[in-house]
Amino acid sequence: MKLVGSLASPYVRKVRVVLAEKKLDYQIELEDTWAPETTIHKLNPLGKVPCLVMEDGYVMYDSRVIVEYLDTLTPVCKLLPPNGRERADIKNWEALADGVIDAAVVVRMERTQRPPELQSEAVCQRQLTKVARGLASMSARLGDSAWCAGNHYSLADVAVGCALGWLTFRFPEIDWRGDHPNLGRLLDKLVERPSFRDSLPQA
């Protein structure tokens, strides 16, 4: 398998973490979707990463689709239960974590891809409010638990860890650790895992 994406992308990192946890072999092909010469649209018509290219040439995209598929390939480190409420809860955690990233990405794009005179602070503040609410919800749901969902490591923790890691990387001014120390403790525990330690975001 070949994973196409960026070392800075939290969505790509989520897939990399799952690949590592599942002990699956793959090659990574770096792609800058903002570069004029990018050809990402040949793999994903939406022009987004990650893309997972299978051995037969079939291309899978969207991190949520990819990680769900990867979890079926081997029983090593099962990250999702087969069905039911517990599975839905973990996927709900993932949707929340990805939603926090989605909102923060809008802010980053507004501030880095648009000329200063066209940037909208109102747009940024609206999205940052979503980030703050999302983090507050994560913190409240986690409480004093060791893991996000149930009593074991799951895809929920992978998704939340990648979201928190990316916020630390791109938005150091957001003091989410000060506001939500339980999330900080979770991330500190996650980065002790080789899958997280070996996939730290890079510019």
UniProtKB/TrEMBL annotation:
Organism: Pseudoduganella buxea
Gene3D superfamilies: 1.20.1050.10, Glutaredoxin
BP terms from Gene Ontology: glutathione metabolic process; L-phenylalanine catabolic process
Organism phylogeny: Bacteria, Pseudomonadati, Pseudomonadota, Betaproteobacteria, Burkholderiales
Keywords: Transferase
Gene name tied to this protein: gst-1
Sections of the chain in a coiled coil: none
Positions of the GST N-terminal domain: 1-78
Pfam families for the chain: GST_C_2 (PF13410), GST_N_2 (PF13409)
InterPro entries xrefs: Glutathione-S-Trfase_C-like (IPR010987), Glutathione-S-Trfase_C_sf (IPR036282), Glutathione_S-Trfase (IPR040079), Glutathione_S-Trfase_N (IPR004045), Thioredoxin-like_sf (IPR036249)
Domain GST C-terminal: 83-203
UniProt name for this protein: Glutathione S-transferase
An example molecular function term from Gene Ontology annotations: maleylacetoacetate isomerase activity
